[in-house]
Amino acid sequence: MRAVGIILAGGGNERLADLTTYRTTSAMPVGSCYRAIDFPLSNMTNSGINKVAIITQHNSRSLHDHLSSPKWWDLGSKQGGMFVLSPYLAGNNSGWFKDTADSIYQNLTFLRRSKEEYVVISSGDCVYKMDFNDMITYHERKNADITIAYRRVPDSEDIRNYGVLELDEYERMTDLEEKPLDPQSDLASIGVYVISRTLLIELLETISREGRYNLVRDVFARYRKQKRIFGYKFDGYWRNLGSVSTYFDCNMDFLKRDIRALLTIEQPYIKTKPKDEPPAKFNGRAVISNCLVGSGAILDGNAYRSVIFRKVYTGENSQVRNSIVMEGTRIGEGCVVEYAILDKDVVLSPGANVIGTPDKPTILSKGSVK
Amino acid sequence: MIAMLLAGGQGSRLGVLTATKAKPGVSFGGKYRIIDFPMSNCVNSGVDTVGVLTQYQPLQLNQHIGIGIPWDLDRRSGGVTILSPHIKAEQGEWFTGTANAIYQNISFIDKYNPEYVLILGGDHIYKMDYSAMLDFHKVNSADVTIAALQVPWEEAPRFGLMNVYDDQRIYEFEEKPPNPKSNLANMGIYIFKWDILRDALERDNRIHPDSDFGMHVLPMLLHDDARMFAYPFNDYWRDVGTIESYWEANMDLIKTVPDFNLYEEFNKIYTESDHQPPIFTGPNAVVQGAILSEGCEVLGQVTGSVLGPGVIVEEGASVKDSIIMEDCYIGRNSRLERCIVDAGCTVGDGVVIGCHGGGNVPNQLRPKIYYTGITVLGERTVVPDGMRIGQNCVIYGETYPSDYPDAVLNSGESIIRGQKTTEGGDEA
To answer: Which residues of chain A neighbour B293 with C-beta distances below 8 Å?
Structure first.
């Protein structure tokens, strides 16, 4: 094995509003049967990385629930394995992770005990499919100390939400600014990094002594002149689930044939925790078109351009349009749901209407009853 | 209690569906295989040690069961063990009968030395709590308990029946009697005290080299005055041994309120499906009265049908009253009616199957298997564009336009190519 993996899945996110009251962003349900973390985690194992640490902190219960067993991602082995690392109390200065770099630093034993040459770090809340081997090969070819994957951000997206890179003609990073007010390029980091394991240990020990805790600001940006840091261009599908609108758009992207094929059908597969639900059941005379449907759903009502998760029930004469309906939600007879995100286990009484707008989908939080 | 699951049977009346797999390995209800039902019943009943006896075409079954992960049978003690016939001291020996198969695996059971042994078939669709049956067995201080299905009286003459006293103790077995005294049918599910069974197997195998539970071991024990009881079972139970009964049982699942409920939160049925992508229904799709498994992409029309995982139904295609198994492709503007399409088939564009003229003419090669109007495509069959195919047809293997005179296969006709990997794959 050339690398070990670290997935940063500890962050909270206020921009997702009620959707992250009970879960961290990495545990966001997406694409009818996945959670965000399935994508980076499957990318790791699909790239032959068989030792992966997942660092959790904020609102971690539902994420831990999802990560019930390493065997769902083929990590249930004696060599390597899946290490879920959460903050704990100990005699020294430990406790909550102060930031990204600190969360790795506090688990430095994981890196010290590894033998692999490289570390691949990924954020846990992005939907993408990537072979990290290509990136490691690129890293070696560039003789880089650190490699940061980036993508070109189209005008339709606001690049000011991302870390913005400036690269020279050899792809070497000359500047890196986190969420800049006045971005100097259209190249944004996608939160995937390759770094040699011993260098990472050394840097984390150094910055920790200086009371610095952030991976991007205190390691990558600060060391950009001392270390050889390169950008690695990724032009595949990539979405961050950081806001309601990107979350909504990402789910709707699954309705496009090429994106759905990439993320759900083509090998290597994105793996998730199996739920053993029976096949989805389409009753009666309803029309369910342009929809993603999860197993175990029972649909008596109409649905159009929506992402319907597992075990959803829709009653007769109900209409679900342009919406996301999460696992276990029950929509009564005659309900109208449009531009809405219904979280898990929502119950809509017969005749209830939930209607939002394309710009601002209405969100009903987990377990709510209307 | 440990379970021994007999999964070696061919199920020859399922025709081409069992050409490359044993009957317990045949798909059912879209994503399941028949063996998933007894396997899941075991774990839902707290039975954590299961021996699966295979013989006929075991490859798919072995791959399906693996180390038992879907059923939580990947355990350090117990778990699932596949028991195949093997070469002993000097010669190889097949399993020659149901009881003989258990007899040949006495050493496996001895290793666990259980108090009770549960013997199961791998051929039926049902949910049952074997632990309740074990309680019944203990309360009666029984030597043998046999699960008994109460069948309608008019159907009773088709079954192996048990005649019982008021306390459910069995005093007589009757095989398909014309004038039945009871309607309790033997379901092929037995709980034995291990010491009683062990002794009976050894004795009977000295007499009958093809020792069978129904024919030899149970009558012998009854003759010996063993305490044998019938455990009444009144829930959904289907033998899916024929094309028609297999089709009917699948169709039971698509009713608005199905007779057999897979949607309960408890007593789930588990199956091997590593990859469970979502289902997609296209902008022009119509899916009504159907169940669809993970990864299906329906762009056309699906009504009254059961679809396995990864089935693609193209734009303009229509699938009606059919069973389409895993990873099949149904081309544009094709029309399928009353078909069973086994895994991995490719149906080209503009193909018509099951609704071409010719009527319900029984199959010429196997009139006793294919006679109810259902056309069957064997595993990985390829049907070229534009072919028109009637009822009770069988197609198996990769076929070419030259196989179809005037691009037609009339009702009752067959094309058997078999599979290149299987020698003499003519199991239709």
So the answer is: 279-280, 295
- Rg for chain A (alpha carbons), in Å? 21
* Closest residue on chain A to B291 (Cα): A281
Q: Is A271 on the interface with B (CB under 8 A)?
A: yes
CB-based contact A282:B274 (threshold 8 Å): no
Residue with tokens 């390493």: A70
| A265 contacts chain B (CB < 8 A) | yes
Give me the residues paired with residue B52 across strands.
Answer: B5, B82
Which residues in B lie closer than 8 A to residue A254 (C-beta atoms)? 278
Q: Measured between alpha carbons, how far is B164 from A245 in angstroms, rounded to an integer? A: 68
Chain B environment of A264 (Cβ under 8 Å): 277-278, 295
Phi and psi at residue B409, to the nearest 5°: -120, 110
Against a cut of 0.95, is the pTM above it?
Answer: no
Helices (H) and strands (E) in chain B, counts: 8, 33
Q: Is the dihedral of CA A157, A160, A163, A166 positive or negative?
A: positive
Could you tell me how many residues make up chain B?
Answer: 428
* Residue B90 β-bridge partners: none
Distance from CA of A286 to the nearest CA of B (A): 7
Write down how long chain A is.
Answer: 370
β partners of residue B79: B49
ipTM of the complex: 0.93
Burial status of residue B302 (CB atoms within 10 A of its CB: 0-12, 13-18, 19 or more)? buried
- Facing residue for B277 by CB, picked from A264, A286, A287: A264
Provide the token pair at B360.
Answer: 């319900």
Is A291 in CB contact (< 8 Å) with chain B?
yes
B107-126 pLDDT, tens digit each:
999 999 999 999 999 999 99
Whether residue A254 lies within 8 A of chain B, CB to CB, comes out as yes
Contacts of A166 (CB under 8 A, 6+ apart): A173, A174, A175, A176, A184, A185, A187
Per-residue pLDDT tens digits for A191-223: 999 999 999 999 999 999 999 999 999 999 999
Distance CA B294, CA B303 (A): 17
Give the Cα separation of A355 and A358 in Å (integer). Answer: 10
DSSP-assigned beta bridge partners for residue A231: A148
Q: Which residue of chain B is at minimal alpha-carbon distance from A267?
A: B275
Residue among A359, A358, A335 at smallest CA distance from A346: A335
Residue range B144-202, pLDDT digits in tens: 999 999 999 999 999 999 999 999 999 999 999 999 999 999 999 999 999 999 999 99
